[in-house]
Amino acid sequence: MKARIVTLPGDGVGPEVTAAAVAVLDAVAEHFGHEFSYEEHLIGGCAIDATGEPLPAASLEACKSADAVLLGAVGGPKWSDPHAPVRPEQGLLALRAALGVYANLRPLQVHPALAALSPLKNEKLKHVDVLFVRELTGGAYFGAKTRTTDTATDECKYTVAEVERVTRRAFELARGRRHKVTSVDKANVLETSRLWRSTVQRVAADYPDVKLEHQLVDSMAMLLLTQPSHYDVVVTENLFGDILTDEAAALAGSLGLLPSASLGEGKAGLYEPIHGSAPDIAGKGVANPVGAILSAAMLLRHSLGLEHEAVAIEAAVADVLERGPHTRDIGGQAGTDAVRDAVLVAFEVHA
Ligand code: ATP
Ligand code: MG
Q: How far is the CA of 254 from the centre of ligand 1 (A)?
């Protein structure tokens, strides 16, 4: 098949890990006879330096017409002054909004070989396989903000339509997994959460084959640590999802391991590792490329419908996590390129 992929390497380790992910996509194209074309564009701090804007019009236009977008990371100390007129993160928020990607999928698996790196005891980590579905376009991130000298407000708003579309996505995904959805809210305190809960409840009636449970976000923060293997699909609003998925990432052993997909109505999507620009290790060739490579696998699955290819990449990554080489964040000595090359070799075995 033919596909047009826009790459947005961005800042910090973004270019290093994106290059590794593109190398893996190239191997997929070569092995299976697909034609992927890539168009590279600016976003984030590097875009501010070059054009004064965190999301230049050329980048946005290219992303809007692409089959999929592969992003590295944005931000870094050079642009982190909170009073700066423009910030790199604005580019990413604007891109998500413009693409209409409302469902952020963050799968969490704990590889047995890395269980020792996790803060939990090994037996708790057996069979952890959670898919977080975080709402991405509403809530406190996008509500009106006010500020006087001694008072600040952040409006948190959700519409039934916003809750319904992300909930449906979560239930559909649960049907391809273990048929269980946990909806996380704070319905004992927040009105948005009561709307969230009643909407989820109503949507659930259309999916009688999927088991639904509700959890309050404070309980969920605890339960993720005490019984992580209980969960299948976890759906929640923007802010709760942001916090819970960072907590969950700690269970995997390193932020560098986890991928994400942001999806809207169509097939196009935005794919990025969940880690940030990691300025402390940028430019050294030591960043873990696994999160970016697994994001490329999600791109193949969700935007291009290439499930077999996605599974082959995931199997290759699992081999490398099992046998090494490992980057420093997971206790090894290897650089980004050595891990990439090992994944490429393992891919040929699984393809
Ligand atoms: P940002 O503001 O862009 O999120 P940050 O300073 O919060 O940047 P993160 O990217 O969130 O940095 O990373 C947090 C920690 O995890 C850092 O110590 C970083 O080195 C490490 N880390 C993140 N990504 C990777 C990776 N791909 N490989 C190895 N270590 C990583
Ligand atoms: Mg960070």
A: 9
